[in-house]
Amino acid sequence: MLAVRFSSLGDLILTTPLFRAIRTAHPAAQITLVTKQEYVPLFAQSPRITAVIGYDPATPLRALAGELRSGAFTHRLDLHGSLRSRALRALVGGRWGSYPKRTLARQILIRSRRDVFRDRRHVAERYFDAARGLAVRPDGEPAEIFLHTDALRAADGFLRENGLGRERTLVALVPGAAHATKQWPERHWQALVRLATEARMDAVVLGGKREQALGARLAGAGGGQVANAAGLFDIQGTAALLKRARCAVAGDTGVMHLATAVGVPVVVLLGPTVGAFGFLPYQARATVLERDLPCRPCSTMGGPVCPLGHHQCLELIAPAEVLQALRKLPQ
Predict the structure, then answer these.
(1) How far does CA 196 lie from the centroid of its chain?
(2) Are 250 and 259 spatial neighbours (Cβ–Cβ below 8 Å)?
(3) CA atoms within 13 A on the CB side of 301
(4) What are the pLDDT digits (tens) for 22-59?
(5) Is the pTM of this model over 0.90?
(6) Do residues 65 and 47 lie in contact, with contact meaning Cβ atoms separated by under 8 Å?
(7) Distance in angstroms (rounded) separating the CA atoms of residues 313 and 265
(8) Are residues 189 and 291 in the same domain?
(9) Residue 80's domain is classified under what CATH number?
(10) Three-state secondary structure call for residue 53
């Protein structure tokens, strides 16, 4: 079986319930996944996947198609539905299964505020439509990631070196996002750090290289109770640090879904997007904080600036409210 999902982090994590169901129903299945090279570590330890092919977008698609045409795949699943994945399907040939992206319904909701969604399923369950011929269904369990022992060892070493999580509750903070309008304001993160440390919490800031400077500022606001891990760990390492936390705070991001995949309760700060899109935490212990504003949703994935210039969808979520939600998260 061949499955294609090039990106992004959160979308890939949400494919894992499907792969788990396929492996359960068909233990001997040979499952090959094609994804971008940077996401290969996400599946490197997974017993559900037989082989992962890392794709470099700089490589001609025809070269990838030529490699895939040589495989004797009984089923082909397009779990992306992008122009690139459709082009790959045409080049590889054969019959493909796909899933409903609900792109038109999202655009109608954004542009006219009319909710025409007839299919309210989470995207993790819509992926199953691509595998209709495999007789699989969702098992009601969350997404998953399998961690390498080296990643756990590195995470433990980082926390030990920074003296975090020994006697105080450890919370993971994820201040970054791919798009600016999905980011909670920095001053709110700063205030949350102060409130959390006063409440006898330690914190580790997670993210990529883009969040290094922000993470350093947040660590500075928390003194010795906050450490900046942004940009220091890959996907496996970030997941391992999340695994060691008691809870997490994140926006509508891939790392938020990574937290749910390792079983960590999470407070989600939802801004320009809404639950109707189908990307809320899946079967997870989570609290979603959001504001019911007439301007929401304003985009499908966020953007560089608030279209109205006020960013109230996230400005109005107070740090004290987030701390209270952290304390109430189910364990």
Answers:
(1) 24
(2) yes
(3) 8
(4) 999 999 999 999 999 999 999 999 999 999 999 999 99
(5) yes
(6) no
(7) 22
(8) yes
(9) 3.40.50.2000
(10) strand
